[in-house]
Amino acid sequence: MQCDPLRCVWGGTDKIVPVDVYIPGCPPTPAATLYGFAMALGLLEQKIHARGPGELDEQPAEILHGDMVQPLRVKVDREARRLAGYRYGRQIADDFLTQLGQGEEQVARWLEAENDPRLNEIVSHLNHVVEEVRIR
Fold this sequence. Notes:
Layout: H1 30-48, H2 55-58, H3 70-84, H4 86-101, H5 104-114, H6 117-135
Helix pairs in contact: 3-4, 3-6, 4-5
Family: Belongs to the complex I 20 kDa subunit family.
Cofactor: [4Fe-4S] cluster
Protein name: Hydrogenase activity
C-alpha cells in the first residue's frame, strides 16, 4: 500500500502549509481522526485565549508552605494524592498543611466544619505521616 505524500506520513504537507496536528495512520482510523479533531480544537482554544507575557511571568514562584520542611511537604502531598487522586489530593494536602501550620486544634476544627468521613480518614493518614517524620 502506498501513501499519498500530502498526508504527512512521509513529511510533505508540513513543508507547504503549517501543520498543528498530525493524525497518525494511513488511512487514519476513526478513533485517530476523533483524537486529531479533539487535539485541533484544544489548540484552537489555546490560540483564541492566548495572552502575551506580563508582569506575573517575571515574578518568581512562591514556595507553598515554606514554613514546613520540604520532605514533610512531599510526603504529605504524595500520600494525599495516593488516597484522593491527583487533583483533590493536592487540595487536601494544601488545606491540611495550612491548618496544621495554625495548630493541631485548627485541624480538628476544620474537620468538624467539613463534616466529611472520607476527609477524616485521609487526614488521619496524613497525621500518621506527620508523626512518622516527627519521630525520626
